[in-house]
Batch of 3 targets.
Target 1
Amino acid sequence: MKLLRVAAATLNQTPLDWDGNLRRITEVLRRARAEQIGLLCLPELCITGYGCEDAFLAPDVPRRALQALEALLPETKGLVVCFGLPLNLNKATYNVCCLVADGEPLGFVAKQALAGDGIHYEPRWFKAWPRGERTTVRLLGRELPLGDLHFELDGVRIGFEICEDAWTTERPGAQLALEAVDVILNPSASHFAFGKHAARRRLVLEGARAFGVSYIYANLLGNEAGRVIYDGDALIASGGDLLASAPRFSFQEWTLTSAVIDIETTRTRHGWSSSYLPHVQSAPGARVSRDHHWPATPPELSELQVASWEDSEHVSFEEFARAIALGLFDYLRKSRSKGFVVSLSGGADSAAVSCLVALMVEFGLRELGAEAFSRQLGVCAQDSVAQDGRAWVRQLLTTAYQATRNSSELTRSAARTIAAGLGTQHLELDVDALVLAYESLASEALGRPLDWSTDDLSRQNIQARVRAPGVWLLANLKGALLLATSNRSEAAVGYATMDGDTAGGLSPIAGIDKAFIRRWLRWLESSGPAGFGPIAALECINAQVPTAELRPPGAGQTDEAELMPYELLDAIERAAIRDKRSPCDIYAWMRVRFPSIEPNQLLIWVERFFRLWSRNQWKRERYAPSFHVDDANLDPKTWCRFPILSGGYERELAELRAQVSASLG
């Protein structure tokens, strides 16, 4: 029996925060040593932060990363640890991990597969390391190996799959299995997306089973750099069994998850497999060996603990609440803002944003306690606030209902009800005089009165735009961050007023569609996150039909009447943008999915989507940063690029009209 206590750490790092990143790593190392951890896996690029973007190309960044690594070496006494950092060689930068044992660096393993899809842009900054290649570099005052390596310490063989390496069809783990590796470390920076935890779990379990190893997966945590949220997924598996899993969406600056693995039992089980044919001899230089004394590990069973909400039938609602709450918390503290301001219209989107801020407070206080919560935010709480969640909400969130003559008593009352239910500091501003003043200015300049029959859209937009300066003023006065309230469905078709409801420094729900928001709000009213309960005040929101309330009340304005049913809009958007299907293919697919819609009406709506999509790319370019919550985003800066000026699908839509006309005879 050869037992070894291993661990995976999650870290809430910040790009280029040299002192803060170093402090958090040091704290983890000291805790690991106190817990007699033998082998510790830290996340990918943990020294610099993963989201440094083009700063990775600056020569100073790899230099400072090496200086930080050197400063950390004394903290590794008694430990074997991997550190992630960028490394320059021959005019190129590589994404590498350095394995350090008992204060001594042993070598650098370079990432072979670079993530270049979705939000990832690694090929812009790094070069992929060629499989099987190795060299030596003089760094940290030593000659050290670099490349496609594995290590042997006191008979225990350790290899690497660095994040994307493990998601490819030719995983390095297959080669490492032939080298009789005992443990694979996977330092990762894997963003949160719905359903991704299950995919990671399968990846780790299958890697452990197929390669006959113990597998240690360590991910980043929190809103590291602005748009991307990391759920802090850390997993330890051995021979196909999951031994330990970190709590996801933690508000802590780091977590440490450990388990005891049995090296000899894993070897024996792998050896039973008739398909396992190990290499008799490794390629020259592929294995780095060193004497090492592993700490004594008492025999014990690792008890797998998983939060109850992870098995909920509403796990996507739970994940959304926890992911955005954590994203808001980190954005607030890292931007050094003193709170949030929301223009609370009495509708679903602004109510959802306000609820997410309130959940941020509840989750944070529950996990951190008032003192740590206050310290991390850099906000001095009054004694009366201390442990009171509602008082914290009032201190951190200001909401404002901004009425015009077209606003209804229904939405005014709904805004009051939501604000009271959450405990926000709520203000009511009458902006109708400002709207009339702008209309009067335009009317005098043009020499004619403005009329709804000829100036409909312009008169709607000025109402939305007039609301922006007031909430910006409130945000400035409070040193707070203005949250925009537009959702993804609106972004797809431009159903939002630039410098109106898109105004803000952060757009927390621009990555999620309207249909999901409405379902989530109904769940939040009836159930709510595990351990917290429902928000009953949402009844006044969920009973409404979504409307912009920018036309006179008698117009009967509703969102879906002006656009199309949100479920259909979202289905078309995913088929067109995520799946890259043509208008003709989408029409045929929507006929199957929505058989109750009349063919001519469906044609109108499919055409409407493509025309509005093409005309409104400029709006999507101007949206405030949004959070990514799934692997199909519309953010043109990090995910979905589309020309601002285009042919607008004219030929494709003409073909669709002809096809539908022919089919209907």
Note: The chain has a mean pLDDT of 93.
Target 2
Amino acid sequence: QDLAIIMLIAGITTILFHRLKQPVVLGYIVAGVIIGPHTPPFGLIHDENIIRTLAELGVIFLMFSLGLEFNLRKFMKVGVPATVAAVTEIIVMILIGYGIGTMFHWKPMDSLFLGGILAISSTTIIVKAIRDLKLQKKNFVQLIYGILIIEDVLAIAMLALLSGIASTGTFSLYEIGTVVGKLLLFLVIALLVGILIVPRLLSYVAAFNSKEMLLITVLGLCFGFCLMVIKLNYSVVLGAFVMGTIIAESRQLSSIEHLIGPLRNMFSAIFFVTVGLLLDTRVLITYALPIVFITIAVVVGKVVTCSIGAFIAGRDGRTALKVGMGLAQIGEFSFIIAALGISLNVTSHFLYSIAVAVSAITAALTPYLIRYSDPLAIRITAIMPERLVYVFGLYTDWLNNIRPAENQLALMTVVKQSVAPILINLSVVIAIFLGSAFFSNSEAAQAIVKITNHSFKATLIWSAALVVSLPFLIAVYRKLCGLSMIMAELGVKQRMTGRFTPHVRRIISELIPILSIIGIIILVSALSTSIRPPIELIAGIALIALIIAMLLWRWFIKFHARLQMSLLKTIKKNGLQENENID
């Protein structure tokens, strides 16, 4: 009954708002208000929990679709500007939110959580508005998507930060650094393993020429990965997006987008209706003044901060303003942060209702802000002093035209080609040991490894993790050798060491890789304390692993090379297909 009412009212409002040439998102929110429990004379929805569950499916499908459209190559192009703009926005909006709470004499914790609520823009609302306006292919939209990704990653760190402050009254930078580090490690491993496996699986399934089979397989991958992400205490939003990004590297991308479209449209409609359902009209009256202040702060603050951040990172003023106006709202993460404060009993209940009200209002404004960003940019440029316009243009041109000297560029390229693989392989090694530690404490380990002696079982699992890590440790060692030779050549000058220069360079080039590998083993040993063998056994295990590495050195190198080629081949194939579609 509830689902029938939602879809019926949503269908009517969709037709009406299309006829009036208004954003469909606004129509869904209005539908939610009409049938919501807070609208007299009576509510038409009886079980809000079921509707919220269906709404979460809408978030999953929207984020999954976003991942399908925004692949890794696109993110690399906007990574730096997106990071600058996102960090600028989050810091300033937290300060603005805290200031507003203080102005209304709210509790310090209410003010702090309000800052967190205002810091993160709504990915769901923005993606829907951009789709409705058919702007997906615009350059500024890709930057908006990049900022949203950075925001979602930082939002998870913010949740940890707020939880720590709420529980202890203080926060630890070490704890936040650990959370962010583990999250980035998880993302790297998920993308590497996913790109190696998922596109091949989908190619196999697609060979059967069954749309049903392909759709069900994709849904299984999406929801299965989201479940794993939830088990690791991360957001389902992040899980859906990452799996979409992985599947975007498959050759069946266009077919998958076509199959997912109807599901995305249905469940995203339910999500936006739910936003209207949660809107309590009484809160709008009781807290009208704070809601007005907060809404203005969200729109103005995000437009200004995101525009400035994008401009500082090298985008022209017109593009920067479009980015800022596209991000001027709050949404799903704001609800999560508000609910966290209530669950921890550190914030007032009115804060959640205010977050929903501001989200609904800013969601309704978003399509208009995006639509009129171009005319506004032209108008602002027209009224700005010519000298200021010239200075801004000069800054953008200067930033975009900065080029290092040819010898510096060649050196940077070599170093980049060495450092990136080192970090990726090191991430894989750390993930293997952390995953082994997680496995050793699971029920599956109890069923598979039927050993009652905990010390012996831990030693066995840690040793297996070390052997599995050998191909990646060898790859790290080889890259370190090449990098250390470059560092030795550049760092050791003949005028300082004279005739001993070749010997000093050789010692440095051989010593750095060995010390680095020892440091890596100490690091992974520290990360896997729960399965680390007794100290007296570590040396023996390391010696055995060294012997295995020496005996199978060439095989490990070939195995790692095949993995690397498979990864590059998958990405290159999809890149060629993408270029063909564009042509």
Note: The CA atoms of residues 170 and 304 lie 30 Å apart.
Target 3
Amino acid sequence: MKKVIFEKSKAKSMLKLFFALVLLLSTVNVHAQSNKKADDLINDAKKYLTERNYTGAIKICNQILKTHPEFKDAHLVLADVYNSLDSVDLEILHLNKAGEIGREWEVVFKLGEAYFKKGDIPEALRYYNIYSANKYIPEKRQFLLACKMASCRFTINSLNNLGQNHLPKNGNRSNLNTDEYWPTPSADGKRLVFSRISKDTEQSKPGKMYLSVPDSTLWDITKPPSDTVEFDNLGVQILSDETKILFFTACNRQDGLGDCDIYFVRFENGKWGNPTNAGTTLNSGLHESQPSFSPENRMLYFTSNRTGSKGKLDIWKAELTGFGENGMPQWKQPLNLGSFVNTSGNETSPLIATNNRDLYFVSDVLPGMGGKDLFVAQLGESGNISEVKNLGYPVNTHNDEFEITMSSIGGTAYFASSRLTEKGTEIFAFNLDRGIETTPVAYARAKVRDMKTKQPLSAAVKLENQSLKTNQFQAVQTDNNGEAMFCLQLKRNYMFSVSEPGYLFFSNNMQPEEANSMREPVVLDIELQPIEIGAEVQLYNIYFETDSFRILPQSEPELQYLVAFLKNNAKLKVEIQGHTDSSGNPENNMKLSGQRSKSVVDYLVKNGIELNRLKFSGYGDRIPIASNETAEGRTLNRRTTIKILE
């Protein structure tokens, strides 16, 4: 009897085990199918990201995360999307979520980059420090990482900068009230000559030449090479270590021919002698400065506003034929470099590279990233200019860059910049061979016309790099032909607007993908509509959260343009229209577009525009302006429209 009961019990246990196994296998199968579906979806999201269909990528990733909140790749794709959209807070959010699921080195580095872009320097340095423990950092990234970490340390504490890409102001680092200019390395790369001038307005003293000697991590800035050599901050040039001659600029001296002249000084009997004017052929009665010799010490490039200049300051060249019996340099008559380099503004700080082909200089008129930028001109065999290029980011920024010099030994380039605005003008450096690679740039020419008459308009054009969390932007007025040229970083999102009294303003965005030249820029044909009833303008820089009517922060510049336009045209009444593409449910699109247009009206009212001047309407996908069959067309259809009612 006991045996029968035992057998029945055993059978029941086996049956339970069987059903458990069936349930487990079923769960595994469902899970596998679910994971396969998520994998297929994430591949679609990555494809959308490649096509820059960011809305589609966001929608798919959010769909995945609803059922698979631990799906790390969805967070990584969203982080890449928000990086492309310059939404750094959302990028950091998803990088952190990906890191919580499974920390990997690339996520750590991207967090450092994101916090650096955001301006949270201590947090950026923390992640850079963590990443530096990685034993397999690519070679090119090693130097970039070192520069970023040094930049972070300098920003956190300017008195404890441990990087080589910034030169401390002096040996004891106690005097922060000076500007440093024109770093010039000696031929052996072991010394750096530069000029320093006080920012103290009560001291109208000229600058002095200083020598800097590097050790393993810092530059020890010592005394001036000669207490008698005092000059303005306009550049020095060592002819060679063998000839022991140093050319430099001195201003307002009694033996000068103009306000600033080029002088030279010899090193003899263990000390520097007295400065001597370089002569009447080279120096005029006006301004000569910033000498730079070609590698064979034959051609001198310099800055001058002498007779024959095309702008305020031009770049000139003069051939050195030798030295006379009296020790004076002998020169051929100087020549202007021509209109391809020189403009109506200031072209300064020439430097001819050791290859005798690349001529670096500074311009405040040629298309740049803001302020003064560094450029390079390509010289042909006969000395003619064949091409001019902007040096690109990160050498050029939205602040001023002043000059560049290079060491023929260490492969190091030095330049001065005001990028750390609170620190004044300071000297920076980077390695030419394996360090920071400058990003090529793109050029764009805006051509502005009246939509009805097709006549060119002199209009204000504003360009803003949305990756920079600053209030700085490029702004120019188009010329008599309605044209203006801009320089753009690649793969950065730019918003530009065009405005002129009596016209609806124009705005759009662009993200250049390929480098081009000033001779072959991207041409933007822009037609402004006269203000009249029924006139419309399409706005593409107002962004909303996915499937939401909450306005994203990067919409602020566009909305402020709209606020300014309505305040400047106080009698206008307008309709704010919301439009979508054909993706999704038509009823939902209609509802969402109406909510979004109301959000814009709410913003305008909050910023001082009377409600009785505003009407909001949602049109969903009913009024397309492009085909919904392509990603580009769908992007054009997702917009906010401003229509003049009365």
Note: The longest strand covers residues 314-323.
